């Protein structure tokens, strides 16, 4: 994930359409593509492969072996980033020192009031939505505002503007990177923000652990970037799925969020550099290679029906939208609460539908709005996702 879920680019980041049957885990050598052909001669990596798995020069298709390695081995696999001081980028001892305190700030008790602020902002913004809207815009505005509210305890226009400037094109483009000036604007807005929310918790935790002020700010900055685009993509897709599959009874917003994240995990890949030779079961992966866990393929394997939206489904297979292992997302509760609150607030006073019939459910049971989506490291919506929001004339009828 690097500095945030999406900010940094790596050589393997070639955009590809979502392919439900594509390989589940990729092992990507760090050398340039020009050398790949030569390497194809020594393509066999001795792994205990599950039935149906395949191996090529630069790909390993064995979700279970790779998953185990990600889950257990933090020392052998790193994100190999050292340029920023935040949790998302540091490795080894530096990561071990920061992880508990950032996880506590983002996901533990201190986050409850921040979560309440974020949820209130999401609900409030959705209460104002009516008429024709682009679900991408809604996701972006609400996602940014509620992550900012969680971070500083209230709405903050300067910080929202600074984060939105980075992410405005992001729901349409899978490849992008914040410029230094955009990053500096987020830093300045964070420094000027009041001392509430997760930022206050981060400051406290970092100070108690003997870190400098900059570490708390860096973590706040990276968490804002990590959270805004992912919440935006989740809300955008959840709105479209619900529009295509209006609930028969009351909306179960949390189930809708879970099913949306299962079908469209906003973070596509978990890239790791092999620091010391890694044993993927029976075979080894050499130091310096990149191992890339592909969360999209993990979610879908070879099952074509897995793209069908069904919030009542009881199992989600290998889906892991929050990541795998010790570096998985510490803000799952916060994110789910924000998206669910936004959906509930809209559902309480309105219905919404896809403006274009062709975006709806196709003959294979999957939604057509999925077709133009692109994955690099994150999910992008290259075309608008138009919705029409209609005010309910009568309150939502109670469940029978
Ligand atoms: C729907 C929303 C979100 C999704 C799907 C999501 C997904 C993920 C995933 C897959 C990872 C693991 C990346 C890796 O292992 O390389 C991750 C890590 C992380 N996420 Fe999220 N995330 C979401 C929202 C947020 C929010 C709102 C925040 C903060 C406010 C956040 C903060 C972080 C941080 C700090 C890490 C790094 C953890 C570490 O390296 O130990 N995420 N997230």
Automatic annotation (TrEMBL):
Coiled coil: none annotated. It comes from the Eukaryota. GO terms for molecular function: heme binding; iron ion binding; monooxygenase activity; oxidoreductase activity, acting on paired donors, with incorporation or reduction of molecular oxygen. InterPro entries: Cyt_P450, Cyt_P450_sf, Cytochrome_P450_monoxygenase. Gene3D superfamilies: Cytochrome P450. SUPFAM superfamilies: Cytochrome P450. Belongs to the cytochrome P450 family. This is Cytochrome P450.
């Amino acid at each position: 994930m690097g500095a945030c879920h999406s900010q940094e680019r790596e050589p393997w980041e070639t955009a590809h359409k979502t392919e439900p049957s594509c390989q589940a885990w990729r092992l990507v050598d760090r050398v340039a593509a020009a050398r790949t052909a030569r390497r194809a001669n020594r393509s066999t990596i001795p792994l205990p492969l599950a039935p149906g798995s395949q191996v090529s020069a630069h790909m390993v298709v064995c979700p279970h072996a790779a998953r185990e390695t990600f889950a257990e081995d933090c020392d052998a696999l790193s994100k190999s980033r050292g340029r920023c001081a935040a949790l998302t980028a540091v490795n080894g001892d530096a990561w071990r020192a920061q992880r508990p305190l950032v996880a506590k700030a983002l996901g533990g008790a201190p986050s409850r009031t921040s979560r309440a602020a974020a949820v209130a902002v999401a609900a409030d913004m959705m209460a104002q939505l009516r008429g024709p809207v682009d679900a991408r815009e809604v996701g972006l505005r609400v996602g940014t505002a509620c992550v900012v509210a969680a971070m500083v305890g209230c709405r903050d226009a300067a910080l929202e503007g600074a984060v939105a400037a980075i992410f405005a094109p992001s729901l349409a483009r899978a490849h992008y990177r914040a410029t230094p000036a955009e990053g500096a604007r987020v830093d300045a807005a964070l420094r000027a923000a009041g001392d509430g929310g997760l930022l206050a918790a981060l400051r406290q935790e970092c100070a108690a652990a003997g870190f400098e002020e900059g570490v708390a700010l860096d973590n706040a900055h990276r968490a804002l970037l990590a959270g805004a685009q992912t919440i935006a993509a989740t809300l955008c897709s959840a709105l479209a799925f619900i529009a295509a599959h209006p609930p028969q009874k009351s909306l179960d917003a949390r189930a809708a969020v879970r099913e949306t994240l299962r079908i469209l995990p906003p973070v596509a890949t978990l890239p790791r550099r092999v620091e010391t030779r890694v044993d993927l079961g029976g075979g080894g992966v050499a130091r310096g290679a990149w191992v890339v866990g592909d969360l999209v393929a993990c979610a879908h394997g070879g099952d074509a029906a897995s793209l069908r939206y069904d919030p009542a489904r009881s199992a989600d297979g290998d889906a892991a939208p929050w990541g795998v292992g010790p570096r998985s997302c510490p803000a799952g509760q916060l994110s789910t609460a924000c998206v669910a609150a936004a959906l509930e607030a809209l559902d309480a006073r309105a219905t919404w539908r896809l403006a274009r019939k062709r975006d709806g459910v196709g003959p294979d049971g999957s939604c057509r709005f999925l077709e133009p989506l692109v994955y690099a490291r994150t999910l992008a919506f290259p075309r608008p996702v138009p919705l029409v929001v209609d005010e309910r004339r009568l309150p939502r009828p109670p469940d029978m």
